[in-house]
Amino acid sequence: MKVHGGVLITGMLFVATGVAATRVAAEEAPVPAAVPLAVPAAVPLVAPEAVPAAVPAVAPVAAPDGLLAEHGGVETFGVFEMGWRAFVDRPADYTRWWAAPGRPPGSAPSESIAKFDEYGTIRPGPYLQQLDFAARTKDGVYWSELRINDYGTESFRYVGTDNYRAVFDMMKAGEHYFTAEWDQLPHLYSTSAQSIWNGVGTNQLTTNVALGNNPTQAQVAAALNANLRTIDIGIDRNIGRASYRWTPDPNWDFQASYSNDHRTGTQVAGAIVGGLGNQQIVQLPRPVDDTTQNAKASGQYFGDTPWGHFNILTSGGVSLFTNEHDSYTYENPFFSAANPSVFSPLGRVSLLPDNQAYTASMTTGVDLPYRTRYMGTFSYASMRQDEGFVPYTINPFVVANALPSDSADARIDTMLINNVLTTRVTDDVKATFRYRYYDNDNKTPERLFPAYVSEDSSNNGIAAGSVRRNLAYAYTKQNASEDVTWRVTKTFNVGATAAWERYDRERREVAVTDELSGKIYGDWRAFDGGMFKTSYLYSQRRYDGVYDPQSLVRYTYWSSPDTQTVTNFLMRKFDLADRDRHKAMAVFELDTPIPGLVVSPNAGLRFDDYLTDPYGAGELGILKDNVWNAGIEVAYAVSPGLRLMAAYVHEQFDRDLVGSSTITALDGTTFPAGGTSRFFSNMREDVDTVVVSANVDIVPDSVDLGLSYAIAHGKEDWTAEPFGSNTPCPSDTVCAPFPTYRTNYQRFEGVLRHKLDPDTIAKLGWSGDVTLKLRYLWERNQVADWQNDLASPYMYLIDASVARNIGMAAFNPNYDAQLVGGSVAFRW
Amino acid sequence: MLYSLGDASSGEGAERKTVASISKALGLLAFSGLLLGAIAPSLHAEVAGAVQAETAERRAGGDGVRTVAGEPDAIAEDLSAFVATLLKQPSPRGGSPHGSSPNGGSPHGASPHGKSPHGKMSASGAGHSRAVPLHAAMPDVSALMSYAADVGLSVPAPSGAAEPGAGEAAVDDKSDSDTSAPIRLAHNDAPAVAPTKAVVSGPMAKMVRPAPGDPWGRYYVGSEICETCHAGLFDEFSLTVMGRSIKSGKVTAQGKMECETCHGPGSGHVNEGGGRGAGHIRSFRKTDPATSVADSNAICLSCHEKGNQTYWPGSTHETRDVACTDCHTVMRRVTPRFQLAKKTVMDTCFQCHKDRRAQSQRTSHMPMREGKVTCASCHNPHGSATEAMLREPTVNETCYTCHADKRGPFLFEHAPVRENCLNCHDPHGTMHPNLLVVMRERLCQRCHTNPHNQPGLGVIGIANSMRYAVGSSCQNCHTNIHGSNSPSGSRWHR
User: Fold this and answer.
1) Where do the structural domains in chain B lie, given as residue ranges?
2) Whose CB has fewer CB within 10 Å in chain B, the N or C terminal residue?
């Protein structure tokens, strides 16, 4: 009964204030100060002598007699900040980057607001920065709190008009905890996508563009000019979550949670339709309309052993994914009535199917004798998918075979067994042994699918695709390691780890890989400031036996392996190939002799050397994949009122690849000896990141200024070079380096805060703090991305031989934005 | 002389004590005013000198009388808080610290630190407050005087100082009066520094429970006396989950929580007059040489070695000597949840993972800067059943939490996708769209050769030089690369 009374007290507070505030926030309207504060003075919930009756700080609560007194009354506190903002420079919603007639490739860049608004629409005008309203009984037993936009950042950059989050917590101390949350998470990809499609957002896309199977460039241009429309591409998530925790006594802990995540919108997707080798490619607004529901419940018991404590936690969960569409269809702009079986009138692409996952797990930790502790987990999950198959093809002019079943009846069961045993051998030496077994058991039936229909097309009107079988890819993974840590001194640890990892796969070119690794590390921490952490790891991964490329395809093309071609047999896939790895890191934190000045150099690397041999064995694939970074951070508290920070990190990614455009017949006998038509490519990416910030107390306890600046500049180059005697790179004209890919993100933000004089505020009747803030933001994103910049509805401008290729030119991440604003924050 | 924190005494003795207490209080007020006025500008330097000297002595292995360590600012803050408390409230217990409100005073009044936005709370709470006479403040007066003398200030001698051992005579071996549960005892681990004999220069604090085996002979004094000097901390602490549990009297599996549950027996600290590290009080500060990270963590783990923290021993962070207090602050409400030391999860993690901070600034990023996704959305920093401390058994199952559409299983699986999303994506941020580790088509060419002639982009206008490489590159056609459920989807075209 006490619980219910307390819940009633706090709940009533928020019925009045939380809901009102949420509604106001959602409507983007300025929140009148009276809303959260509109409280008749007749119901003071705090000491009347401390809070003038004219400005009560809490909402009216008609609590039952006795409840408030029983808990000492209720007091509230919180933060409310709202403001107004305006763009000095607002990127246009719709601008063009892409190539178009009269706007050839290489034209001056334009900009779009899409990337700026990627995770929330920033609109000029009033906005709600934050609302935090809490109420509690004075004895500390009951507490409830409503938080809107509690992102922990003071920036007004990320508070949009469609990305609100509201969290409501309610608890009885140490016993009941309830949280409800509503979260909007938009992801805007484009505001300038060029669409020829009708029915955007649905799973039936039609178009007025009808070009036939052999259009001229002029016909394409005319059709596009007449039918292109600009649309937004993006996904809106609306997520509701609720969780409850109950600790009836100190030994038991029960938890339950539920979430509902609904997504709607569109994504850009490519599709190939008709042509059969003379591809006709279109980009489409793929519909997104699905819901994910996750529910989980757990119970834990915590008790004592003769040597310490133990706990055992069991949990179970259900996850349901429901897609409103199992596929989407679209009209083919290149449909040919004269040859409809090849140049299909329609295309269909399946969408991600409904699926379910059921999980159960048990975790325990037990203190044992000899200062030993065991921790273990057993987890089991079953992922299932039984969505009904869509037909082989939507082309009515193609006769398809019968399906072998109505659905995939797909099922993957996973099992995790994890064991950790850690023991303190001596006061200063600790040993930890780990063994982990993970089984990904694919129980999906492997079925033969006779004569699938490729590209919704057929030369003779009868499905002629090869017979294929779906493969139930599965694997197990085992890890074992022994770790020893020696506390040399109270502040200096060193340690070493020896580890083994094994993958055992089915339906892959390699059955078993084993990786052995050794690691050493050291950690030092100074009492008077400063620390140093470093580690180095070396590992060798080797596959057991032979790399058998046919192991996969002989099952896929079960009935006709000799007539198929697949990835070159000499390819050594990077996740299977033999590999040596070096991995190291070091982080220093040095307190300098200059008071308040801390310097933190840091560095890390991961060098992967693949033993793939492109020379003697003619193998293909990644040769190296190296990453390293180095940086330094300097923090300087010049004085209590002046704090500076600057950080710089340089990262480099360096990869070598030997590739080929050749493929291989499955029987292996037709493979050209030594491999042919190979090329070499180095992919190097350098990224420089600088983050600088300053906080200045201009007038102590009254005026302060916060400044921050960040820049992330990236540059990536791919070479394309001949390799060997038979190469697809005979000349620079067809094998030139790729254009440099560049990204440059910069952001500067300043906040000038003025905390009003408390006495003045008190005279105005407010009992808390009032802070005025002036804000300024400048942000720039520049991307030179040949891959997206060249994507255009008018693809023939990019490649004269490609008339049957219509892109959407969706992605333009370039923008310059300046935003100013002011806000007032009330804190009580 | 016994200074009781319990109910008011009665009778003549009590009256005499009250008179004496009032006199001492007046003296204290005068002293406090003088103290603040005289030493405030120079306190920093003076205390710093004292601290440095004592710290040097301690490091040299000296048998120091006091183990003051830490920042002089904090000492001055504590001192100021104490004085301000006395100046503002006639009684430190049983009433409002900011007035005489029976409800405990205004939540908006100036805190002893002068900056608390949330007001002052009574440690006892209205539901079980006890009337405490004015002289209850006297132990702290003496302690403060003692401390002031220690740092070289001229102070009046405390009157009525207890004889050595008086505290022992006052042992109250009962359980906490507010609950039948025993007070949870802090670990009495082997001392991190050589035990020293506590020097008692003033009255002894009342014992509420002994601390058997304490190497310094200390005992438990209860939380209420702590609030006398640390009132500001109590204010903030009450806004935290742990603070609320303590304030409400919640009994844990280890008993009723008190300040000393974590900080160890406080008698030495009180009797020596307070100050950072005095009386071997456990501080949890990184700069405290009296304890190691492992020792400090052990205190937290005595209650929190369950749930999300079950796997802490042997975890990467534990092995690498990360302290609980590197990421969490117990006494202050910096974040609404989890009592983080920094304002956001990201800022907390970026203290060490500076390369991840750099990655977060990339153009292709998850909504981490926007506060929608945090490191803890995927990772359990306290350790888990996976190598990278993931919340779920694998990388993929972690990703499926939000991307259940990719979960399948599909009719036609793409093996590297099923095995590890990280084969193609880096969730921490990349330069490339869709968080790809490298742009297509090189992404795909790490495993595949193909007949589409893509060694280089070539020259614009040259046939076949870029036909399939722009846009989504390979995915222009292989659109369902995460898996397909279409009977015609074996090449992920459908």
Assistant:
1) 11-291, 450-494
2) N
